[in-house]
Amino acid sequence: MKKISIYLVSMIFALGLSACKKTTPENVITIGEVGAMTGPTATFGISTHNGIMLAIEEINEAGGVKGKKLNLISLDDQGKPDEAAMVTTKLITQDKVVAILGEVASSVSLAMAPIAQQYKVPMITPSSTNPDVTKKGDHIFRVCFIDPFQGSVMAKFAHETLKAKSVAILRDIKNDYSMGLSNFFVDKFNSLGGKIAVEQSYSAGDIDFKSQLTSIRAKKPDAIYVPGYYTDVGLIARQARELGITVPLMGGDGWDSPKLKEIGGTAVNGSYFSNHYSAENQDPKVQEFLAKYKAKYGSTPDALAAMGYDAARVLAEAMERAPSLASNDLRDAIAATKDFSGVTGNITIDQDRNAVKAAVVLKVTDDGFKYQSTVNP
Ligand code: PHE
Q1: Same domain, yes or no, for 141 and 6?
Q2: Could you tell me if residue 363 is inside a domain?
């Protein structure tokens, strides 16, 4: 009995292997994905992956790229830069991917980009917004806006809409995204005549923010800018309210997660953040994406999912246009992306390999993230 089952298992294994042989490498194009599927930013990786998979399935159903099916190898980096560098090297040297999608968190993308560049494998980050990411080399691209713009969006919102005269900053000191974004916010808010009441810092994973929040409370700011990731922000909001701080919190795209409300509860209500897309956008293209995503995953796509979907489609479209998938050909084709109609807006890659796109401002409510306004670049 035991022998038979071992025999069966090895038969299945052998069949599986030969099936793999048939489909690799002539009939498929293998691309890599690096993301945080576990850890404190796991919803970033999972949503992005869902968006990418939806795009790949559609592309494959429609015949693939250059007559070949796309095959995605997705690796978890747990949100850690070192781990991301390791799996990026593996994707390139062992799996021989022709391009890489990822990461979301800028600090993680900053660790991957030099490797992709060294091997000249094009990398497209769906949603890393720190300006330095694409400066790592001519094979590194993004399909989102960058933080000098994102910071200015919320500075203007604070000044014009909230009529805030003074704003306190609470930023994640080891996070390139958070540090960059808070600086860009400060520059813009100062230039509008606003005052920075106080700047305080934390490190991702901290659980007690009371001393920073107590210093902030003493300065009586009109709002607090917290450009961090959802797990920390949820806790910060709770503790701020416990200390009797009632002014609105503001943040950036790093707030975008269904977990923000789970962790922050009602404490995050009435806060505002900038983002790449709103699920309330009535554009038929957006609504069609929403319907397909909901049918497949049973939830409303967040911006990460939408950006993952767009990044995969931009890559596929560039592959189709490229004379070959050789590194420089593919790089040139991605660089030439123009007016690509994405669910997060029209995507044109500029000379710095960034996309120039509008941002939206959303309000956190019990009823979800409510669209407030669109800000054009
Ligand atoms: N822009 C963030 C960063 O660069 C990542 C992010 C994008 C998070 C979109 C949430 C939504 O680190």
Answers
A1: yes
A2: no
